[in-house]
Design a protein that fits this description.
The complex is a heterodimer of chains A (238) and B (428). Chain A has 238 residues and is α/β, with parallel strands linked by helices. Helix content of chain A is 33%, strand content 28%. Chain A is built from seven helices and ten strands. In chain A, the strands form two sheets. A six-stranded mixed β-sheet of chain A has the order 6-7-8-3-9-10. A four-stranded antiparallel β-sheet of chain A has the order 2-1-4-5, with helices on one face. Chain B is of the alpha+beta class and 428 residues long. Helix content of chain B is 53%, strand content 21%. Classes of the chains: A alpha/beta (238), B alpha+beta (428). Chains A and B meet through α2 and α3 of A and α1, α10, α11 and α13 of B.
Chain lengths: 238, 428
């Protein structure tokens, strides 16, 4: 796959929830979203705009009611349950607002987790997990459990974990939402580094216009539809 | 690989929630421990019996006079009454005599090697001024003494001449400790006074044997221990002023005798010939083999009863495990969602929780096994048996704990596996 190929190709995505027979709730009204490899895209919107629903669909955690979605050449609509697991495992790296680290196991084990589910051998994944921890600047605290880490440290572990299987797409849902501005800045810098140095495709979901401004392309979501698209700076403010 | 990770994870979980895990495992611990304990005791009992069978000779048959099973009729009212003149105490005519024994030996010369004859006189004290020793006086023929396999420390056993009614005795080294400062050679030739039923009897010591206290449980100290005091058989009968007669005789059979078949044969012969007209008593045979069989049968019945109780305990334990697994899954909904987002398949989530349930049950099972062996060993020792570990029961317990883990873990694990990742991630 060469630079510039379409990684996310979602067309006419509709998501409807049925709450009792006559009432149905349409959250997304036919959304089109294309993201090319190496892009750093922000999706912004107020709460209730359908951001989370869209992120779940893009992250293959949920299937759209209507529409087509091709992720990195794989037709998500036709995939079975275990194939969806494999797609999440190998093609997507999740970074959550609440970190979602597994407590009781070390930070290093957390980073190993996606590789473990991919069936990578223990010694190989340990080596890679250590490299990733070094990369996010957490080489010193690899054996600490999540309880012993600060928010910013947790989120760095989560980013290392998202990188485990070298996914085609990093999907970050309000990654700085629970952090103060200083540590939030540090986390954003890591995303920029991944984007610039490794050419990672990143989709950042946020409600903060300042963070969105740092991305290359900003899509604004409102009431389940994209209402605007503009270009951002593509790098951290100096 | 994933399995090992799951096991480590599950063990960490057990360790992190010690109290909760312990309470959950309690049913399993109690169930397994009770089964293992009773099996250990049973195994030790039959193991010890088998050991002593070999030393005492599996080919020995005990011939005993016993009451006839009552010939009863049931009346319309359901009352039972015995009919015919019956009595409970044996009179001279009911005993086995030397004549009967000689006749039986003549009938089966190839099967019967010898008779071990004893006459128990009772407990008494050997006295010498301030000094005393507790004894239990037994008249025994030479064959019987030989069969007891005594270690003679000084002197000799009885001669044929002694057996004609001489007032001699063989005593234990314990007696010598009490009365002769442990000097066994000094005891030889000494005459002991024995007080029995307010009458003094006097015996000359001809031999000292080494008292074997292994395999018997006694709460009394060495000084107070009652040891066997052998006198010649005829001497015993003389003292009781009766002709030689026996209510119990040990028959030593030849090596090529089929003990079980011969037992029936001999029993039928003696009863047909000598006890046909005896309304109250008959002769019955038993061997160590048949005793062991009936003991094993009893043990099996007890085992089944205990196992049933243990089964209920295990069932309750299993439900406890299921309950705690459901709670644990509820608590860890977000973790399950995260794992699914990171690429865990339904199968790997299911495996994770089933392994956790199995580990919980296995840890409980192991604690139960150790506890059960401990209790079983202590009980066996207390009852004077050599303890044998019940290997089969241990293997079975491990397998059974795993089975409980799988059975009661499947439903919660499956519930976890089927969680919708979006809902699970959103769960707080």
């Amino acid at each position: 796959m060469s630079k510039g190929d379409v990684i996310i190709d979602a067309r006419s995505i509709v998501k409807r929830y049925y709450i009792g027979h006559p009432n149905e709730l349409e959250i997304l009204h036919g959304i089109d979203l294309q993201v090319r490899e190496g892009e750093f895209v922000a999706i912004v919107g107020a709460s209730g705009s359908g951001k989370s629903t869209l992120m779940n669909i893009v992250g293959v955690l949920d299937k759209p009611t209507e529409g087509t979605y091709i992720l990195d050449g794989v037709d998500v609509m036709k995939a079975k349950d275990h194939e969806l697991s494999a797609i999440r495992n190998k093609k997507i790296g999740f970074v959550f607002q609440t970190y979602n680290l597994i407590s009781r196991t070390s930070a290093l084990k957390n980073v190993e987790l996606p590789m473990m589910y991919a069936g990578i051998r223990g010694s190989v994944r340990r080596k890679r997990a250590k490299e990733l921890m070094e990369m996010v600047g957490m080489g010193e605290r690899m054996y600490h459990t999540p309880d012993e880490l600060s928010g910013g440290q947790k989120q760095r572990v989560a980013i290392a974990r998202a990188m485990g299987n070298d996914p085609a797409l990093i999907l970050a849902d309000e990654p700085t939402g629970a952090l103060d501005s200083k540590t939030g800045r540090m986390v954003m810098d890591i995303f920029h580094r991944l984007h610039e140095e490794q050419g990672k495709t990143i989709v950042l979901i946020t409600h903060s216009p300042e963070l969105a401004e740092e991305c290359e392309r900003i899509l604004t979501l409102s009431d389940g539809m994209f209402i605007g698209e503009r270009r951002g700076t593509g790098h951290a403010p100096s | 690989m994933l399995l090992l990770e799951n096991i480590i994870l599950a063990l960490n979980g057990v360790r992190a929630n010690k109290m909760r895990s312990m309470l959950t495992m309690l049913g399993i611990i109690i169930g397994i421990a009770s089964v293992i304990a009773i099996m250990t005791v049973g195994q030790s009992m039959s193991g010890t019996m088998a050991d002593s069978m070999n030393s005492m000779g599996a080919s020995n048959i005990t011939l005993g006079v016993s009451q006839k099973s009552s010939s009863t009729e049931t009346t319309a009212g359901g009352m039972q009454f015995t009919w015919g003149p019956r009595k409970n105490t044996m009179s001279d005519a009911d005993y086995l005599t030397d004549d009967i024994l000689a006749d039986v030996k003549a009938k089966y010369p190839d099967n019967i090697t010898e008779y071990l004859l004893t006459e128990s006189i009772g407990s008494a004290q050997a006295l010498d001024g301030e000094l005393y020793a507790n004894i239990s006086i037994t008249g025994a023929n030479n064959e019987s003494i030989e069969n007891d396999d005594l270690t003679i420390l000084a002197g000799r056993t009885f001669t044929e001449k002694d057996q004609q009614g001489k007032k001699v005795c063989i005593v234990s080294d314990y007696l010598c400790n009490n009365m002769f400062n442990g000097d066994t050679s000094a005891a030889l030739g000494q005459t002991l006074s024995v007080m029995l039923n307010n009458v003094y009897y006097h015996y000359t010591i001809v031999g000292v044997y080494e008292y074997d206290d292994s395999g018997t449980f006694s709460s009394s100290s060495a000084e107070e221990t009652s040891t066997d005091f052998y006198i010649p058989l005829q001497t015993a009968f003389d003292q009781e002023h009766v002709d030689p007669r026996y209510s119990r005789v040990t028959v030593v059979t030849s090596n090529d005798t089929d003990v079980d078949a011969f037992m029936d044969q001999m029993e039928n012969y003696i009863n047909g010939r000598f006890y046909r007209n005896n309304e109250s008593f008959e002769v019955s045979c038993s061997s160590m083999t048949s005793m062991l069989e009936s003991l094993t049968e009893t043990m099996n019945t007890i085992s089944i009863a205990i196992s049933f109780i243990a089964g209920i305990s295990l069932l309750v334990g299993g439900i406890g495990v299921m309950n705690i697994m459901l709670v644990s899954i509820q608590e860890r909904t977000k973790e399950i969602g995260t794992r699914k987002a990171l690429g865990a398949t339904n199968a790997s989530i299911r495996t994770q929780f089933i392994v956790e349930s199995i580990v919980l049950c296995l840890v409980g099972g192991f604690i139960g096994i150790i506890l059960g062996i401990g209790i079983g060993y202590a009980a066996s020792k207390q009852m004077g048996y050599e303890a044998y570990p019940p290997v089969n029961a241990i293997i079975f317990s491990v397998a059974f704990s795993m089975a409980i883990g799988v059975f009661f873990g499947y439903y919660p694990a499956n519930k976890a596996a089927k969680m919708n990742p979006v809902d699970a991630l959103r769960y707080e």
